[in-house]
Design goal:
226 residues, mainly alpha, 57% helix
């Protein structure tokens, strides 16, 4: 098992990753709200929240446009949240350092919106909500690879009682993230979403490609070493 703790570039950052930290806190707080609805109204209440604030392709219209943002802070289970936040913490600081805080926040949200729109475009008749930060984080991973194609990820590797810290090529670790997404639905809260009932592959692909393209076009990048 590998748990990401950062990248080799992270140690060279000059500023604290305030926005990345704030995004993680926001996701955890919203997930806490999701859990609270289970206690007060059961799965029916949780389904109502997911259906209201998640992206439902079949009903996506102007009045439902806010769900493109709100869906980025909802998660279908503990594993879904945990894996996403671990990868956001490991890679997000690099992109925040390169773009600056406000620009990075816009970049993150833009990747998430494009990811959801990609999923909706491929599955226009779907009535299953799409939720989670996975699309936005896929964009962050794409941007990281574009900026640091030879980057390496520091991770805690443990197997039984054996624990050590290893450096893994970023390309392999990002592949690990995609594979991990396949299994996060197992620990769902009982609500059916595109993530817990069947991974939203096209959202991940759309977010990843968006990150690769947008980082090349994004204005006023502060690239490391420049």
């Amino acid at each position: 098992m590998l748990i990401p703790i950062g990248t080799e570039e992270s140690v060279r950052r000059q500023r604290l990753p305030v926005v990345t930290t704030a995004l993680i806190v926001a996701n955890v707080v919203v997930f806490g709200f999701e859990i609270s609805t289970l206690g007060t109204g059961g799965e029916q209440a949780l389904n109502a929240v997911i259906g209201t604030y998640g992206v439902v392709p079949a009903r996506l219209a102007l009045e439902h446009a806010p769900s493109l943002l709100s869906s980025l802070f909802l998660h279908g289970g503990f594993a879904h949240l945990l894996f996403n936040m671990l990868f956001l913490a490991a890679f997000g600081d690099n992109i925040e350092e390169a773009l600056g805080r406000f620009s990075y926040l816009l970049f993150y949200l833009a990747c998430g919106v494009i990811a959801s729109l990609t999923h909706a475009w491929v599955n226009p008749a779907s009535t299953v909500p799409t939720i989670g930060a996975s699309g936005a984080i896929a964009g962050i991973l794409g941007a990281y690879l574009a900026l640091h194609p030879g980057g390496r990820v520091k991770a805690i590797f443990f197997f039984g009682f054996f624990i050590t810290v290893v450096a893994v090529p970023a390309m392999l670790f990002i592949l690990f993230w995609f594979i991990a997404q396949l299994f996060t639905g197992i620990a769902s809260l009982g609500v059916t979403t595109a993530q817990t009932g069947g991974v939203a592959y096209w959202a991940h692909i759309g977010g990843f490609v968006a990150g690769l393209v947008l980082i090349a076009l994004w204005p006023k990048r502060r690239l490391a070493g420049h």
